Amino acid sequence: MPEPEPEPERAWRDLAMNVRQALALLNYPVPECMPGEPAACTGTCSEHAISYLAALQAVVERKIVHLGRQVAPMVDDIYYATQAELIAEDSCRNPDHIAIARRPDHLL
Questions:
Q1: Same domain as 101, residue 51
Q2: Segments forming the whole domain that contains residue 72
Q3: What is the pLDDT of residues 32-67, one digit of tens each?
Q4: 35 Cβ partners below 8 Å, 6+ apart?
Q5: CA nearest to 79, candidates 51, 60, 93
Q6: Which of 13, 69, 80, 105 has the fewest Cβ atoms surrounding its Cβ within 10 A?
Q7: How many other CB atoms are found less than 10 A from the CB of residue 2?
Q8: Closest Cα partner for 12 from 60, 52, 55, 41?
Q9: Is pLDDT at 29 greater than 90 in this prediction?
């Protein structure tokens, strides 16, 4: 019988699976190659989660860009309100993490 996954790895797996599902819903399916899957590659669950999150960011940014400049004020309002909410809820007060949470200027 296989040994159970350690808690952190299980959390990474859950995150990766959820983000992979989101990518598929956005018409950007990614290969099912996480550890334990039939086509498993050499990446860990955390590496898959990180790569899927980066892909999700790119897919969402691209979809926003294709909405056009006329939606920029609405996108900005929602983006910054969501960022403020997430930062307020986050127990991590690392200033480097908060600085990263700024929206890239190249989107619209």
A1: no
A2: 68-108
A3: 999 999 999 999 999 999 999 999 999 999 999 999
A4: 13, 43, 44, 45
A5: 60
A6: 105
A7: 5
A8: 52
A9: yes
